[in-house]
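Example record used in the benchmark description.
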Amino acid sequence: MLSEMIKPEFIQLGVEALDWEDAIRRSAEPLLNGGKITADYIEKIIETTQTLGPYIVVTKHVALPHAPTQCGALDLAMGITTLKNPVVSGNESNDPVKYLFCMSAKDSETHLESMAELVNLLSDQHFYQILDTAEKPMDILDYIIKTE
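Model output (structure tokens):
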């Protein structure tokens, strides 16, 4: 379940980022501090985005920073970061990015059910209202739990 991947300490609200690269670093920081990813994992996300373009921007205003498991994913986890000021990623049809869901998966299968849940949430306009108005991380996590 998606709620099992997300801890309150992995949710950050109103983060200030200078650009897309800074936004990725900031969104990954709680997972790094929580022992779910390595610093190399963050660098791989940035390197791959520089090489392939904004592959992590999955829908309007939403990025899903991630890298291959073998690049430093230590455990299954997801962080949620809302940005105070959206950033331009280079994905013209979905910019600017305001919400980042940084993900770590220890293999290629255990996260698939959670990803399906996230896709459903990303099609729920009320979820974006929750992201925009949340005063504390549990406001978001409670909503995710309620929808499961």
